[in-house]
Design a protein that fits this description.
single chain, 264 residues, alpha/beta, TIM Barrel, 8-stranded parallel beta barrel, 44% helix
């Protein structure tokens, strides 16, 4: 996910190509990173906020991701130092932190994800994140601080109001709109076409572009994601493992059931 280091704004010809990921909520087979790569996705996002995925279940998945296939991040349950440390020690390529409303929250999460002097991440090197090679600790620190990505999820009115400040917190690599919770907080649950959501997306996108970081969104609503792209965002989590399984299964079943209709 190299192109998410910088801003995603500008006109359609100057923006980098959008990057697409999938939320991993229940399917934890170690082959998932390889399957996502074969499908053409740029990354996966293990969900430990709403998903049923426990660390022991996605340990092998993250290790496979480090060895090959697409990269995998983890959405941690909240601003929790232990959860952030665990995800990164297991080899996550980065974290998504839900419900970030303020600068102190963003700062605490970003610092927990990076080693000193950029942060205060706990040091444990004989782990999956180093592929069990702790011979070069200075190199481990340098590489981790340069490669780990930390995204703040904006899901409330307060988060939108503070997006410009959150985007400029050192160590924050991007802002992701969480439209379902944001709409709930705005008082319009499920109304993806509401103008207040469009305004919120505009403000978050502008905050990300101004700060020179990535902007994006998490949703299975592709029409909404297209609107985010038109606002200058470039990082998208498109649905979940369960959603893609269901849509694919339904499409295949509809195709074979069409045999009978054609034969009547």
């Amino acid at each position: 996910m190299s192109s998410v280091n910088g801003p995603s704004g500008g006109d359609a010809t100057s923006r980098p190509e959008p990057e697409f990921g999938v939320m991993i909520t229940e399917f934890t087979t170690p082959s998932i990173p390889l399957l996502l790569d074969r499908a053409g996705f740029d990354f996966g996002l293990v969900d430990t906020e709403h998903g049923t995925v426990a660390p022991d279940a996605f340990r092998a998945l993250l290790l496979v991701a480090r060895l090959g296939g697409t990269r995998v991040l983890v959405r941690v349950p909240g601003i929790d130092r232990r959860a952030i440390t665990e995800a990164l020690d297991l080899g996550a390529a980065g974290i998504v932190v839900p419900h970030v409303d303020t600068v102190p929250q963003a700062d605490a999460a970003a610092r927990a994800a990076r080693f000193a002097p950029e942060g205060a991440r706990g040091m444990s090197t004989m782990k999956a994140h180093t592929l069990y090679d702790s011979t070069d600790v200075p190199g481990i620190v340098k590489r981790a601080n340069a490669s780990i990505r930390v995204y703040m999820q904006i899901e409330s009115r307060a988060g939108v109001e503070n997006a410009g400040l959150i985007a400029r917190v050192p160590g924050v690599d991007g802002l992701l709109v969480g439209p379902s919770d944001l709409l709930q907080d705005l008082g319009y649950p499920g109304q993806f076409d509401h103008p207040d959501l469009a305004d919120a997306v505009k403000r978050v996108a502008e905050a990300a572009v101004s700060a020179g970081i990535a902007g994006g969104a998490i949703s299975s609503n592709t029409a909404f994601l297209e609107k985010c792209y038109q606002r200058g965002m470039g990082l998208f989590i498109v649905g979940s493992d369960l959603g893609h399984f269901l849509s694919g299964a339904r499409a295949s079943l509809a195709a074979v059931r069409a045999w009978r209709r054609r034969s009547l």
